[in-house]
Amino acid sequence: MDTEFHIRKAKDKDIDEIMALYEQARAYMAENGNPGQWTNGYPAREDVETDLNRNVLYICESSDGIEGVFMFCIGEEPNYREIEGGCWLNEEPYGFLHRIASAGRKKGVATFCVQWCLTRCKNMRGDTHQKNKTMQRVFEKNGFKPCGTVYMEDGTPRIAYQKEMGS
């Protein structure tokens, strides 16, 4: 990878730029056959502020500025309690990431963020929309296995992924 990235906790001063990244990500998804994943302004400023206040919001930066944003947490994701059409690889404690978005200026941002998470938690879960081919490729490229279907609070289905690294 030619570009040097680093991860840091998001700060209050980053919120406007984070919101712009999410707006750009919604447009990217719509242009690439996935208009239904982040609808009605999701993620909203309230989601960003909640993640920030919970200390689980991260920024990926390069020397050129903010390249990406994501939420990473080690704990239980309530939407992962039930899975259809398969099963999780294990029931050990896990980390999960949500709301990942790239500025789109540099290649490898999502993979860098996923790999950063894996250095902090060897058992990771994630999910994405059936039409989000970009995120499916990121998960699969990084060794995540599709495990079944989970449902979000609004009832929409997501492909569930998990990666477990050696104990």
Write the layout of secondary structure elements.
Blueprint: E1 6-9, H1 15-31, H2 45-53, E2 57-62, E3 65-74, E4 95-102, H3 109-120, E5 123-128, H4 133-141, E6 145-151, E7 157-164
Parallel strand pairs: 4-5
Antiparallel strand pairs: 1-2, 2-3, 3-4, 5-7, 6-7
Computed over alpha carbons, the radius of gyration is 15 Å
- The chain-level mean pLDDT equals 95
Q: Which class do the helix and strand fractions yield?
A: alpha+beta
Biggest sheet: strand arrangement: 1-2-3-4-5-7-6
Number of helices, counting only DSSP H or I runs of 4 residues or more: 4
Measured between the Cα atoms of the first and last residue, the distance is 28 Å
Shape: globular
Major β-sheet, in short? 7 strands, mixed
Kindly estimate the percentage of residues that lie in beta strands according to DSSP.
25-35%
Query: What share of residues is helical?
Result: 25-40%
Q: What order do the helices and strands follow?
A: EHHEEEHEHEE
Low-confidence runs (pLDDT<50, min 5 residues)?
none
Number of strands: 7
Fill in the keyword field for this structure.
167 residues, alpha+beta, 4 helices, 28% helix
Concise overview:
This protein is 28% helix and 29% strand.
Please explain how this structure is put together.
The chain is an alpha+beta fold and 167 residues long. Helix content is 28%, strand content 29%. It has 4 helices and 7 strands. The chain has a 7-stranded mixed β-sheet with strand order 1-2-3-4-5-7-6. Strand 6 and strand 7 form a beta hairpin. The longest helix is centred in the N-terminal third of the chain and has 17 residues. It is globular. The two termini are 28 Å apart. The mean pLDDT is 95.
